[in-house]
Amino acid sequence: MSAQSLLEQTVLEHEFDLAIVSDQYKNLQPPYTWIADANKQAAIWVLRGNQVQERPVRASPYFTWARVHGIFVFSVYAPPRLTDAEFAALLSDIADEARSRRPLILAGDFNAWSTEWGSDRTTHRGRVLLDALAPLDVVLVNTGDSPTFIGEGGQSIIDLTFASDELAQRVISWQVGGLDTTSDHQAILFELEDTRPPGPAQRRGCRWNARSLNREVFANWMAGVTVASGPLEEMVDQLGAAVVAACDAAMTRTSGRRRREPVYWWTEEIAGLRGACLRARRLAQRARGRQDWGVRRAEYVAAKRRLSAAIKAGKRRCWNLLCEEADRDTWGRPYEVVMSRLRGPRAKPPSSPSLVRRTVATLFPVVVGEPIPPPAVPDGEMAPDVSLAELRRACRKVKEHTAPGPDGVPNTALKIAVATRPDIFRRVFTACMRSGVFPRCWKRQRLVLLPKPGKPPDEPTSFRPICMLDAVGKMLERILCDRLQVFTESPSGLSDQQFGFRRGRSTIDAIEKVVSTAREALRGRRWLGGTKEYCAVVTLDVKNAFNTARWNNILTALERIETPAYLLKIIGNYFQDRVLEYSTSDGPEASSVTAGVPQGSVLGPTLWNVMYDAILRLNLRRRVNIVGFADDIALVAVAKHLWQVENHLNAAVVQVREALLRLGLATADQKTEVLLLTSRKRMESITITVGDCHIKSAPHIRYLGVHIDARLRFDVHLAKVCEKAAKVAGALARIMPRTGGPRSSRRKLYANVVDSVLLYGAPIWSGATETQAYWRQAEAIHRRACLRIISGRPHLSYEATYVLASIPPLALLADERTRLYYRRHDDAGRNDERQETLRRWQALWDQSTKGRWTHRLIPDIKGWVERRHGEMSYHLTQFLSGHGYFKHHSQRYDNNASARCPVCPDATENVEHVFFHCTRFEHEREEAQMRLTERIEPENIVRFMLKDPASWNAVSTLAKAVVTRLRQEAGEHQDPVCYDYVLRLYAFLVHYGIQTIRDKFYIRRVCYDHAPNKRNVKRVPPLYNGTFRKRERKLSRKKEINEEGAKALKITMRRMRYNDHDTVPQQPCQLVTHRLSKSTFHRHHNVFASEYVLNDGLLSRSQALESAELPEPRALARLDNDRRTGPWISKRRRATTATQACQRARPEVRVAAIPAAWAISPASTASAGPRAPALTRPNDRRNRRDSISPESRRRWTLSISSNRSSSAGREESHESSADDRGRYLRSACEYFIRRKKEMDFSFANRIQIQPITK
């Protein structure tokens, strides 16, 4: 783990473009560009914003590839555990994948030896590797004889780099080492020579650091600025020069390059430990073969451990600080960090000259049209002056934290300049209006190409163009737009069918227009002879709409709505002499713009609506309506018969496409979607012809962010939204831990982000809340966000969670948004509808049977929700909910536990008794009552909390003191680590061949429950909730565990969790024989099934350890030599024979298992007394289990004692074997917890049989 953590810092320090990783610790998540194989053992890390041009559609095992900058890069990891056949198959797959891809780099850890790359011998894998890569015409790039792997067992060259012929000559400075790493494998560094000729140095624009802005200095500088009257262009230049001079006086300039910052957890201490670890490693390598090698090796291991511990501590500390920072800056760095995982990797804009030029030519086509004549302004008509209100309104619309335009002036500084000298800006803007000239310097637009996610990065249509404009010019555009909208929103202005870029209209209006038409058609009583009709929706997409709008068509449309002449004149000048600036690797370039409205401008959307209005005013016949939002078009047709719907829509599509062609626009035919809405049981479809494409109706379509299905059930939409909201909630939950982190008020803001995702389009689909099957998942996500607000436990009821979080249920919120939508023009509607929601919520709260303790404390929701003070906390939530460290509550999950108070024997330890009656907390209760000046009771304590902040803090302090003490008492009564029970559970899992349960999840949970120091054990979710039950049902369906075995597993886990380990419960527990599945059978062919029999009486701990002694050699020999237990026998026969063999050896047996990864030393038959077990871990490469003969395998046993002649000797043997067995269990279980990868199990040398003594 420390090696990969250091890799993250190393790639930042050295500015690597790409890293090839083999056998990684874990895969990195977005925003990193990380491409991994199916086994998560080979990866390619693309850095510095470089784009991945191509990647595999489906991940392959042990290798992956990606195309970056036109070069195919392969990352390979061939583990040593692969057989020769599997290794050859892997190389064959790699050769097939790389055969048609050039140029090529193939690198990784092959675990193959050959003299070709400096090894002292050539193994079979080395010869197979050379033969497999020969058809690829690749060249070995490795140079020298420096080992790439240095471990305890020796050193070797197994990390190889191959390159195709045309690329091998460009590989320079290939070297081994040179980087600080704690891995056994050395880092390999090489560079690729750039064959392109060097281009001119790029000129970077003026940039200032907005954080260094001195507002007072900037304002004083602007106060002394004067702009002399004269030609308009000179006045604009004087204003721009004054603002630039003020920026130089009040801010520092930046180089335009982002500073290289280390990873967030990097400190000087870690840097020093890394250097010390590197020095210790070098000393240990140089001391190999000398007497002090052991000392040097121990020093290196200790230094490596210190470095790893420091990295873990640094990560933990920085994450806690990040969570605390969320309390101060809600939408700052913490929010950006967690949400960046959802946005994916940040791609760098393209810089290839050919790609950028092709993209500009595609997105900004050259349109040769008639020159635009300047309109004549009638005599006596003069443009009105720019008022102070217009200027201030335009200045308020400028966002402070957006990127600046080509002039580089921060928006914050510009707003100060306008506030300081509004007279100068008014005079310049008025001169522009009266002269009808839009200044030339404000027509420059800097192009930024944003890659579209999921699109091929080498296609021109895979980028979204954004034009960065000067903020001063955008303020003038805002004033023009406000004056123009007076005419566009008049009765003779735009069509009512346009819902985009207009005040008071939104996507919900457009969707409601489409859905209401469909509902009206389906509202009839019957089909045959009735009033029910079909409804169909066709959505059309306009190709490159905003960049291909003809300027002549826009001016003609402006004349139709009677736009004043001075506005026509300045808008006509606004289109002329526009320049598009963009950057490539050859330097900055520029081109002329001949059509379109700039994306990112203020005036562009309104001008687009004016031109597009001709499409929305088409006279479509036969009950076909058109709905528009920006450039999106939806055709809605209603008819009685399917053939009528199909004919009407085909005719309407032809009419719309012809109208678009007259405007110089075209449709993207392949993006057209068709939906047929009907209430008939039989699913029907229609086919619409759009150009050369025949589009068949789909079950559902996505229109403006809402998924509309054929039945108007909106179940598909809720499923899609829940998937997105679950990701958002999971990301935000990372900065909202149960203890610590931001306050509940800040957490509530994060929960609103989740609700905004869930409730988008609620007025459209609010009727779906009546169907519980559609609504259950959304309600669960909403509740999960509310639990994070109050830091509550997961088993808290829905009703109590909503009340404590002061957030209504999601169904009520959806209904409220629906009512608000229909009252959106009413100013008092929001307050009235919130009161109606509270009234309905109160009725549900009174009628519910859940959360009654919370209802007793908080009977009135309105007073609780509308409070002005008070923050929820982890301790206060336990008091208000009754769910916490109370024995009455814990008894729900353990029927054998007692709910009696340890101090008050006749009382039940519930939340009421603990906080209001128990003598243990009399002192804390008296302190709270002194602050409140009154005796506290369940009926009045919340009233005190709502009185003032001091009373709230008094109750919160009481809750924290009580809950903290209860938590400490619960920890004191927990038993210490009992590894024998852990290993018995592990033996059970192995015995049943369970693949999905046999992992660290369950074992670590058991260890956590019994560990005295819980910080050393990773916390995982509880075993005994719905997660375990779902896993149990899943296993039953897969036939990996039968019903009785699952029940026994649950009983075993609960006993280990809650019962005293001095005795085992009296209830008998028998696990029946399990039939192994086919995949498990072949994977673990040496695993046999047997029966576990627990004694039906009490077992002491020493007796339990006695029952785990080893079998006699004859029993092992009998099992090992019985060919009927081999993998070629049927599974039922195999289990039966194994069980019979055990029963023949002993009438009543106890079977346990030991991990096969531990080798047991051969027994010493000469020993007369007990002997401690000697445990050694076998080396995977040298001491394989397959190399041990059956005769030797039978002798590998753990001998405790063979002296059973007297009872005294037997008692001594039992006592000693208990101690030895305990040490062995602890060692074995600790190793199993540390082990990350799948283990190979063999029961033949791990069976332990001993009669159970009562």
UniProtKB/TrEMBL annotation:
Family matches, as InterPro entries: DNA/RNA_pol_sf, Endo/exonu/phosph_ase_sf, Endo/exonuclease/phosphatase, RT_dom
Domain Reverse transcriptase stretches: 431-708
Region (Disordered) residue spans: 1116-1143, 1163-1220
Biased composition (Low complexity): 1199-1208
GO molecular function, a single term: catalytic activity
Highest taxon of source: Eukaryota
GO aspect biological process, one term: DNA biosynthetic process
Biased composition (Basic and acidic residues): 1116-1125, 1178-1194, 1209-1220
Pfam families, A to Z: Exo_endo_phos_2, RVT_1
Transmembrane domains' residue ranges: none
CDD domains according to UniProt: R1-I-EN, RT_nLTR_like
Identification of the protein by name: Reverse transcriptase domain-containing protein
Native species: Trichogramma brassicae
